[in-house]
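sorry for the late reply, my laptop died twice this morning and i had to redo everyting from scratch. anyway the thing you sent over, i finally got around to it. pasting the sequence first so we're on the same page, its 298 residues, then the predicted structure underneath. double check i copied it right bc i was rushing
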Amino acid sequence: MQVFKQRSKKWFIGFLLFVIFTQLIGLSGCMRMRTSQKKIYKEFEGKKQQPRFHTYEVLDREMHYVEVGDEDLSTVIFVHGAPGSLDAFLTYLKDDELLTKADLISVDRPGYGYSSFGKAETSIERQAAMLKPILDKVQQEDKKTILVGHSYGGPLVARMAMDYPDLVDGIVMIAPAIDPDNEKVFWISYPANWLIFRWMVPKAFRVTNFEKLAHAKELEKMRPLWKNITCPTTHVHGDEDWIVPVVNIEYVKEVATNAPLKLVRDPAWDHFVVWSEFDKMKALIIEQLDGTFEPTEK
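ok and here's the structure:
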């Protein structure tokens, strides 16, 4: 009993320190996890291609995304993780080589950035439906639409390929959380969801927590749908990923049975490979655009 009391005390103190920390940072606005249009325009100073911001209404939500590049080219759509916003892919949007090959789009997922900020949507199916208007808009004959998702964005781009196969020509999942049997929930998620504490948690993290607590069930709903994916599919994972375990790369082999599948695994990579290995991730995107994609799994 004494050990239990000591652990409970440490657990409670740890949570309080987390809340205090997030509140102090939240006062500065950092915890909104988004970048203003003004600051994004500044990122593109001197660039030939300038960002174009778009909003649209769908399923009682206002959605927001940024577009950079030539609309007559193929399209790459980037989908961020949790928490996050469209600015997670600014390095990609500014890349001159990518811009010679594709029109680049980065979205604010529902509840993040400027897409009905703070209003969570835990259904991956509904999130995919909320992004479908972008797929409809960019669809062009003889042009490709490639989806790139990091972390939570991974299962979301997979769901889009499942539900709208005629609108998706390839997906790249980077450190995706796709395996319902290995979905990690950190201890802090539970008290953060209690009403007594929930109001203290910054909105972006509150949305993340709602998604996290529902994620395993949402992934289970997707399990029988993986066979619907028939487009080229790249899965990237690192053994040093302590947020989304590398075992997820084994799961995709079991369920994506009808997709040309390429697995890219490195023992030194962690969850943030989307930024730390930019050149390698860019090459994986380009090979899908150029048609040089070669599956590693038959």
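The chain has one domain: 33-290.
thats about all i looked at so far, will dig more tmrw
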